[in-house]
Every structure is written in C-alpha cells, then in structure tokens.
Write a structure and sequence with these properties.
By secondary structure, this protein is α/β, with parallel strands linked by helices. Helices cover about 35% and strands about 20% of the residues. The chain has a 9-stranded mixed β-sheet with strand order 7-8-6-9-10-11-12-13-14, sandwiched between helices. Strands 15-16-20-17-18-19 form a 6-stranded mixed β-sheet, with helices on both faces. Helix 9 (about 215-220) packs across helix 10 and helix 16 (about 435-450) packs across helix 17 (about 470-489). The longest helix is centred in the C-terminal third of the chain and has 19 residues, at about 470-489. The N and C termini lie far apart (about 65 Å).
C-alpha cells in the first residue's frame, strides 16, 4: 500500500516506521519546514535506507519512506490510506482531498488496533478532559501490583503502535493488558477501537476550536465506550459521562460502573469513612461492599490527596477490578504510585505558607479542581486562554481567594472575571510576558499570603505565550520558590 502519514511528530514518525517496516510505501507530509522538521525527516529517511534496528519490522521488507516538508495540504498521488497525527484538524485540506478521492483517514491508535495479533493484550482505556495521565499511571501501578505485565501507553507519551508491534518480539514477554490514555483527537480517528473496559473521567469545554462544538467533543470522548465488553466506568458527579454510557453500543453483558466521592450505591465505587470501597465487583452488590484501600494510600507522603485525585484513584480501581484485580493489589498499586511533576506538586513550605505547583492545570476545569483542594489561596493564573471564559471558575472559587497574581497574554480575561465576581480580592497584574515574570509573580504572591495560606500555581491557561510548555512553567515556579527558601535560611 501507499500510505500517507500526516505529521512528523512523535506519533507520526512512529507510524511511518511501523508501516514501512510492514512493507508499505510511506510518504510523510508536514506543513513545517524548520530545523526540527528537517532533522526528523533526515532521521526517518536514514532509518529506512540503512535498516536501523531502532524501528519495528524487518528492514528487508521496507518499501521506503519519503518525507515532504512545507506542504501538508496536498494529497500525494496514489495514496491508498491516510494516517494522521492526533492534532491535525478534521477540516484540514489534506483530509478534504482524501475524502474527495475516496481515501480513508485514520489515526495511529486505529492502526495499532487493526494490527493486534490473535493473542493481543486487552486494552483498558481512559479519557476525559482532565486527569487522564494520572489515572492511567495509577491503573498501570495497580496492574503491576497484581503481577500483570503491563504498560501505560497512548497519549501519555509512548506510541501505542510501537508497543503493539513489539509485543513478544525477540522473546520479550507479551503484555497481559495495556493501560491506554486516549485523547479526544485520537478517539476521533479510531472508529474500530473496542476496549475491554473504559472510563470517561469528566467532561468540560476544551479543544472546541478543533472539534467545532461541545457536542462533537463529547461524542468523540464517548467513542471510548463503543464495543466495551466488561465495564463502562463513569463519573457519578458528571452526568454527561453517564449519558455517554447510555448512548454507547456495547457488548451484551457489559456493565455501567460509577465512581463517586460519596457513599457508593450498587454497581459503584466510592468513599466511606476514609476508605475506598467497591460495591460493583462483589458477589452481592445490594448488601456487600469490599474495602480496597485507604484514602491515605493515594500517593502516600504527598499530604492529603486532592478530591480529583481520589476520583482518579477510584476510576483506576474500577478498571482494574473489571479486569479481575484483587483488592490488595489496588491498595499496593496506589501506595506505589507517585504523581508526575507539575500536578499538584508540593514544592516547599516557607514562613508558614505552602507552595503548590499545578502548572498542568491548563484549562478552567483543571484549575477549578485544584482550587477546590485548598482553603485559603493566593492564586497565580494566566497564559493563553484558548477561547476559555473564567466567570464560572471565579464564582466557584472566590471565597477561597486571599489574592491573585496574573501573568500571561490573556490575563485581562481573568482580571475582568475577578472584577465582576470577586471585587474584594486584591489582584496584582504583571504586565510582562517574559519568563522572568514567574519570579516576580512568586514574590508578589508571597507578599499577599499569610501563614496557613497556599500559593497555588494553577494557571487555567496554556503556557506557550511565555514558556515552551507547562513543564517549563512549573520549573520556573519551583525555581522561584527555592529562591525564597534560600533567603528564608
């Protein structure tokens, strides 16, 4: 086949190597033509020419890879199939041309699903507006505690196509089950996916510029439930997730399993007196409940877990229990799990003030969950709003705010929401977008804070106006806090 791969990023390069390794003739197209794209193109073409052992497949069967830079709109002549990287919009001219030519467009997740072998590992899928990565990593930790050979893959950073094609290769132990993080983009391009069990953690407006509407965004998230065989896991507190379960076409016998921060009903997991309990995967769910873990087992040593991380743990536990994991493994897996940096990460306590880095809170839904975890907050917020509005977030959080420090290109949107809904809260508006602004923001937040308060970086915005990514933004915050710590000593 002649397959066109759209995009030269991590997933695009992975798909190109995998498909060429299986004998396809591959053309990779990318609208960019900078140093980064040229370096990636040279690496791919060298791989195809030399038969580098770093890729999948047998070099002797490769039909070759051609890379075309600076033109991502034109469909290469003779294309039989287009495989797109997740971020390419459905309205891209390349896909319009493919539709006109009768050529299918799918994503790398779809290709991975189609290429699974007869004894392939089961997939446990996780999606949602926020919490996907944390939940998938919790799930993988629980599965490992059960003694299963597993891996966290997909949108988490490890291309799933590499893992699927590498299962059992060169004598390696095949995976028993995969914990798969799936974005709305990936689900949009994966029509054949049928998971063992899957969870939608929550739904809030995000990426609407890509999907076109909230309805389309929700529908793509809901694709993760299609064809589930054992369990569709939903958030009791977010009715939209339950509605997606009701709309899904699942296998006979597949169950709807809820998770809640309150006392669980039958077919739910929840919290009772500091315990995570299961009333879904027990013999008599009307009268029985199985203790799984203590709330304190969630990332022990990091303080009291935030409510949304308790919810993430319950979702991970539900998927693991659907796969037959024992209660003790849920406990042990949660104890062994350590959150990634920049996700409600405790940086330091200085002068009685706690400093928390949640730079990963890049939208209002994530910021709302973060703000809800603390009682008295000096909030550092701002960046690229991506079309978001902030009135609801400010309304819900106003009573917790001691002060606000605003940074970034779209800070005026948050300032205006604060003026409408929290006019009594002192606001410092930093009129600078260089990376050094974070040090000043931390100093200003420290000035506003009192002992017992939390200085919280939860920007509710993307970072690219000032930083390469949210990691660099969080690093800058941590560095600024450490400067305070040095002065404090």
């Amino acid at each position: 086949m002649h397959i066109t791969v759209a995009g030269l990023g991590v997933s695009g390069s992975s798909a190109a190597r995998a498909l060429a390794g299986l004998g396809a003739r591959v053309t990779v197209v990318d609208g960019g033509d900078g140093d980064k794209q040229r370096a990636a193109a040279a690496e791919l073409e060298e791989w195809a020419a030399t038969g580098s052992a770093s890729g999948t497949g047998d070099a002797g069967h490769r039909a070759g890879i051609t890379v075309r830079l600076g033109d991502g709109d034109t469909l290469p002549e003779g294309t039989d199939l287009v495989v797109t990287s997740p971020g390419w919009k459905p309205t891209s001219p390349l896909f319009t041309a493919a539709a006109a030519a009768g050529v299918d467009v799918v994503g790398d997740v779809e290709i991975a699903w189609r290429l699974r072998g007869p004894d392939a590992a089961a997939w446990l899928g996780v999606t949602g507006t926020n919490g996907k990565t944390t939940t998938v990593r919790m799930l993988a930790s629980i599965l490992e505690a059960e003694g299963l050979h597993t891996m966290a893959v997909g949108n988490i950073g490890t291309p799933i196509i590499d893992v699927v094609l590498g299962q059992g290769k060169d004598g390696a132990r095949p995976y028993d089950v995969l914990a798969v993080e799936l974005s709305s983009y990936q689900l949009h391009w994966a029509p054949s996916l049928r998971a063992h069990s899957a969870a939608v953690l929550n739904l809030a407006p995000d990426h609407l510029d890509w999907h076109g509407s909230m309805q389309a965004y929700a529908a793509d998230k809901g694709r993760i439930y299609e064809g589930n065989t054992v369990a569709c896991v939903y958030n009791v507190a977010d009715k939209a997730t339950e509605e997606l379960v009701r709309a899904a076409d699942v296998e006979e016998g597949c169950r709807a399993i809820g998770f809640t921060l309150g006392t669980p009903g039958p077919s739910q997991l929840g919290v009772v007196e500091g315990l995570l309990v299961d009333r879904a995967f027990v013999e008599n769910r009307q009268k029985q409940a199985q203790e799984l873990a203590e709330v304190a087992d969630i990332a022990p040593g990091s303080g009291t877990p935030a409510p949304h991380n308790i919810a993430n743990a319950l979702a991970a536990a539900a998927l693991a229990r659907a796969f037959g994991v024992r209660p003790a493994a849920v406990r042990d897996g949660l104890r062994a799990f350590h959150p990634d940096a920049h996700r409600i990460q405790h940086i330091a306590d200085v002068g009685g003030v706690t400093y928390i880095d949640d730079s990963k809170a890049t939208n209002t839904h994530a910021a709302e969950a973060s703000l809800a975890a603390y009682e008295h907050i000096v909030w550092i917020a701002g960046g690229l709003a991506k079309g978001a509005t902030f009135d609801e977030l400010v309304q819900k959080s106003a009573a917790r705010l001691r002060g606000v420090v605003l940074i970034g290109a779209d800070r005026a949107l948050i300032r205006e929401a604060l003026a409408r809904h929290a006019p009594e809260v002192p606001v410092v508006d930093l009129d600078r977008t260089d990376t050094g602004a974070m040090s000043q923001a931390v100093r200003e937040a420290t000035r506003l804070a009192e002992p017992g308060d939390t200085v919280l970086l939860a920007p509710a915005c993307a970072s690219m106006d000032m930083f390469v990514n949210y990691n660099k933004r969080g690093d800058a915050f941590a560095d600024a806090v450490r400067e305070l710590t040095a002065r404090d000593h």
